[in-house]
Amino acid sequence: MNDTQKKLIWTAASIAGIALARMLTHKHRSIDLTQKVVLITGGSRGLGLEIARLMVKEGAKVAICARDKGELKKAKEDLDELAATYGTDGVYTVVCDLTKTNQLHDMLGRVKKHFGAVEVLINNAGVIQIAPEEEMEKKEYEEAMNIHFWAPYHLMEALLPEMKKKREGRVVNIASLAGKVVVPHLAPYSASKHALVGLSESLHAEMQKHNIYITTVCPGLMRTGSLQHMVHKGQHKKEHALAEILASQPFTSMDAKKAAESIVSACKHGETSLIIPLQAKAITAANGLFPGLVADVMGLVNRILPSPGGIGQKRAKGTNSKSDWVPALLEAVTDRAARRNNEY
Q1: CATH assignment of 30-340?
Q2: Which of 129, 132, 128, 130 is nearest to 309 (CA)?
């Protein structure tokens, strides 16, 4: 047997060993979500609603919170109908602004009174502001940090002690590809998601000894229909048109339902991290190996994005930023996602 053959055998054995270890780890960490108390923030629409649907199907006791009472009412109707089909508990909803700690703790108290202690936390609530750096203000950074970093921090600080006592718990923090790789025109979003990734991965390392697994999810762009709620500044119609075109393409965006399925699976198996889809994994890997090159590429991308101007530092929602630049066929794709996921 020559050296090349030995190396091939060693490599194959190593891969098989890693695969076996991963399989055993999955089996050891795996939990049944039936009757687990699951809290999903931002669960009234978009990805949060898709995750809630799957949790209902899993037989979990699902609680969702959001700021909008009307959205929560519509989401509850959707989820309660699904729960009746599967013979599971109805969904509990709480109106809550997570950036206000008094409301956050009141919400947790209500969920505990209704269902019992939260056993699975899905930190999904978020906001996206899109504009050149010149048009961003401090308030955008504060807004992003409050919802993406401080809200998950306060929720975990409140729930982890009880999970430690039970020696069991699951937390899923929905970060973003922008929390791994810097994306132009998303500075507040990217900065806050980077902070969440750091917090989430740090706590995952420290909580394992308590049989608590914290999963950091970094998805790329998804077809959730959430474009209606994006906040734009500067040349808002151009920014929104570009976002809509990217969100409607299968190569540049992912189906929200498939993303939710991957996230729930990662939660059940206590995965350390989840990066989806494949394109996001490739970009993250490239950034890890060649950070300077990726940064230069993003600099080139920034040159072709809309320049400052337009409405300047004024804010416009996605619903007020539509234009005729997006082909009707592509607009129909995002509209279907919006209708499905309560984004209107």
Answers
A1: 3.40.50.720
A2: 132
